[in-house]
Amino acid sequence: MEHVPPPAEELARLDRELAELDARRAQLLTRRAWLLAALRPPAPTAAPGWNPSAWGAPPPGRPGAPAQPWGYVPKQPSAPRSAQNVLLALGGLLLTVAAVAFTLVSWGSMGIGGRSAVLAAVTLGALIAPAVLLRRGLAATSEALAALALVLTLLDVYAVHAVAAPDTDGLGFTAVASAVLAALWTAYGLALGKLRLPLPAAVVLAQWPLLFWAWAAGAPALVVGWALLATAALDGVIALWGKGPGVRVTACVGGSAMGFSALMVGLALSTTASGPLGAAAPGALLLAAAAAALAGAWRAPQGFARTGGVVAGLAAVAAVGGVPAAALSDGWRVLAYLLCGLALAGVVRAGLPRDATRGALAASGAVAAGALVWALPSLAAVLLGPVTLLSDVWAGSPEGFRSALGSTLPWSELAAAPVVLALVAGLLGSAYRWWPAVVRIAAPLGAREETPKPDAASAAAGTPGAAWTAPPGAGAPWYTVAGAGARRRPSGAALRGAAGAGALALGWGALLLAGVVLDVPYAVAVAGETALVGGLLAWAVRGAGSGRGSSAVPVTALVGAVSGAVSVGLLSLASEGAAYAVFGALTVLFAGAAVRAGAEVPRAVFAVASVVWGTVLTGFAGRSLDLDPHEAAPLVLLVPALTVLLGARLRRNPVALPVELTGALGALVAVGLAVSDAPFLALVLALCGVLAAGAAVRPERRPAAGYLAAALFVLATWVRLAASEVSFPEAYTLPVTVPALVVGMLRRRRDPEASSWTAYGPGLAATLLPSLAVAWTDTDWLRPLLLGVAALVITLLGARYRLQALLVLGGVVLALDGLHELAPYVAQVAGALPRWLPPALAGLLLLVVGATYEQRLRDARRLKDALGRMR
Question: How wide is the angle at C-alpha 509 spanned by C-alphas 322 and 490, nearest 5°?
Fold first, then answer.
């Protein structure tokens, strides 16, 4: 037999063995380290504190590091780099504050010689100190002193102007001083190449000489624009060929600000010019800016090249389009810019770099989008303007299209809007029609650019091409654009579909706007919009039934047809004849589209829209007959009745359910119209019950429509009894209840699985609920007593035979009847009790329920399960 020690003894044994293994492992590691040190060649003796990592040697302890001599104690590391930077920054800031305070406060207490000597000595010392410190490897301290020297040179300039040349113009002196300081700091930065601050500071100072010179000379705005553009061009040269990422980034920021300012000056002068000759000079400035941006895009990396192409394209459009626009009225100027923007698309054949070409095409699209944004508000006014006719239906036909819209837009100044929409629509339609040719032309723009493999010379020189061979984790070049990797682009079919959809929508909008601009007669406008709806329906049916290609065009046609139908329907409300003609035509057109459509979703949309237009027609019939709303309600039920018959015809067709649901909404509208008159409401509810019963004949609609029909019949009965002021409803409800219960019993005998709600629910509710409603207003005791006895008997029968309908209906009626009888006594008791007692009792009840919440939840679940098992 094998001896098994107790758990405590076995655990102690395992702990001892693990301790022995740890001690043996430590001995082996120590021996291994000694052997590695013995195998390496001896390192040269170094003074205490010598740091080999500062000269490129690997730190101690790494594989391949030289063995340290016996007794070598490494120097403790200094404060972290961040702490050193904070200390240097604070020191430089304090020195700067002291220099500023000295110059502004203590300057007047010294003579001219003392002032000059102090500033010259301090500035010279601050300029020389970084060169000495760099030789000792103190780069961070050198940067701090260089920043101090920069501030001192600015103070020197201020001092020279305040003492030596106080009468000179401040702007002119600032222009000369900024130019001199920019040259000084450029030379200083090139001389001390390891400093990172001087050259970016020189770039910042170089932004101001030309601008301040133009400002001091009182030059016109055009000259200021040229000064800004020249500064931006200088920044572009620095950004492309400057030394270090700091210089290039600073130049990019400065060039962007100055170039944007120059473009804004040129654009403002071009748009406010009094004629073509006045717009030529700003146009030259804009063309020069476009040339400078294009030149930069030719040599810039990918992201900047595309931005340069966008700027060049927009500037060229503003320059060329501004000349003819100055000769046109305000309403037609946008067309001149649009034509130039569309002509810019020809840059695809100009042989420019791919990214610059993409940027120019983006600029062309931006111009077209801007023109559309200018024109779309007027289109929205055409579509939504007829809403104002809802307040005065059938007031009479207006004279023209504009008067029917009720809009206050200056239509004479929007005369170019339909031309703009038609022009863009024609361009997109041409692209959709001749898409293969467009693909061939644009193929070079979508081709992948091969990444050049850097040679040894470029890798050694640190050129951007060498960045492709950098190991993982290496820093990217300064111009690398975040997220510039491969993106998923839309397919050619999707792009073609978008072009076709845009052409269709814009062409439809152009025709609508043309009618408003021309102010066609009202009848022509209504007929034209209806015809447009028919054309869009035909296009939607054709596209939906083809089953090939992109779905953007048919979907756009469908949305346009529905939107146009709503708009022309509202427009037709000004005249009775127009309303009948338009809604009748819409009903027929959408019904025909539903028959001809091949896809299920468009067919359902067309069918639903046809039902809606037909329902509106029945409402018009009631208004034409001078019927009150409640009297017109039965007429509105004609369309729901047709939808029930159509649903029986369609059976399980997917279109049947949307059509029937839309008809049900029409029936709900009829009920809403009849609410003001109780007898008509009872009639409408009964008719709705008949329609629901007709739908319940079909097996697939029976579960929902059957219950709905029973509820509607019962509700119609109650409303009718209430309208007739019947005080004894049992005389009318009991003759209905008894046969209904007999029918229910026969149904349960034939089908024991039938629900008790189907068999007995309608019959019991027909008597119990009206009697309960009357009992709540009855001051006598006999009716509540008899109702309570009947409800108690029904509840007991439901519990005995496990019938859910009897148990629930009887229990609810019994509880409410008892509450009615107890209500006066409860009110008396509540009046006699102190006011603080009800809140206290309510809080106590909540505490008890909360403490026994889990038990109450289980009881509720058991009650639910018990009711669920009943029939």
Answer: 80
Note the pLDDT of residue 76: 41
pLDDT in tens, 655-697: 888 999 999 999 999 999 999 888 889 999 999 999 998 888 8
The CB-side HSE value for 660 (13 A sphere, CA atoms) comes to: 25
Q: Give the H or E element holding residue 137.
A: none
CA distance 602 to 556: 11
- Single-letter amino acid code for the residue at 671: V
What are the residues whose beta carbons fall under 8 Å from the beta carbon of 447, sequence distance 6 or more?
Answer: 354
Q: What is the DSSP letter of 67?
A: B
Q: Report the distance separating Cα 529 and Cα 404, nearest Å.
A: 13
3-state class of 803 per DSSP?
coil
| β-bridge partners, 521 | 400
* pLDDT per position as a tens digit, 506-535: 999 999 999 888 888 989 999 999 999 999
CB 143 within 8 A of CB 197: yes
pLDDT tens digits, one per residue of 397-422: 787 888 888 766 777 778 888 999 99
According to the model, what pLDDT value does residue 831 have? 66
- CA dist 164 and 160 (Å) reads 5
221 contacts: CB under 8 Å, gap ≥ 6: 265, 268, 269
389 close to 573: Cβ distance less than 8 angstroms: yes
Whole-angstrom distance, CA of residue 357 vs CA of residue 355: 5
pLDDT at 47 over 50: no
In whole angstroms, give the CA distance from residue 456 to residue 332: 60
Strands, E assignment, 352-401: none
Tokens matching residue 619: 């409402």
Q: Sign of the C-alpha dihedral, residues 216, 219, 221, 222?
A: negative
Residue 496 is given by DSSP the state H
Distance CA(367)–CA(315), nearest Å, equals 11
User: What is the separation, in whole angstroms, between the first and last Cα of the chain?
Assistant: 69
Average of per-residue pLDDT across 90-96? 52
For residues 210 and 226, the answer to whether their CB atoms sit within 8 Å is: no
Instruction: Read off the amino acid at residue 662.
Output: T
Could you tell me which residues are beta bridge partners of residue 67? Answer: 42
Report the interhelical angle of 600-624 vs 638-650 (nearest 10°). Answer: 150
Q: Which of 429, 378, 424 is nearest to 405 (CA)?
A: 378
3-state SS class at 539: helix
Using CA atoms, how far apart are residues 229 and 319, in angstroms rounded to an integer?
15
| Amino acid (1-letter code) at residue 500 | G
**What is the C-alpha separation between 599 and 104, in angstroms, rounded?**
83
The rounded distance, in Å, linking the Cα atoms of 203 and 239 is 10
Burial class (CB in 10 A: 0-12, 13-18, 19+), 442: middle
State how far Cα 530 lies from the chain centre: 34
DSSP 628-660: -HHHHHHHHTHHHHHHHHHHHHHTT-TTHHHHH
Residues 6+ apart with CB under 8 A from 444: 354
Q: How many CA atoms lie within 13 A of 36 on its CB side?
A: 15
- Region of 114 (left: φ > 0; alpha: ψ -120 to 50; beta: rest) is alpha
Contact between 804 and 757 (Cβ < 8 Å): yes
Count of H-run helices and E-run strands, the chain: 33, 0
Are 574 and 395 in contact by the 8 Å Cβ rule? The answer is yes
The CB density around residue 537, as the number of other CB atoms within 10 Å, is 28
| The pair of three-digit structure tokens given for residue 721, joined into one six-digit string | 């009894």
Cα–Cα distances in angstroms (integers) from residue 227 to residues 186, 208, 231, 259, 396, in the given order: 21, 10, 6, 10, 64
Q: In angstroms, rounded to a whole number, what is the distance separating the alpha carbons of residues 663 and 695?
A: 12
* Lowest-pLDDT range of 173-177, 262-266, 433-437, 541-545: 541-545
Cross-strand pairs, 743:
none
Task: Give the pair of three-digit tokens for residue 29.
Answer: 């590691």
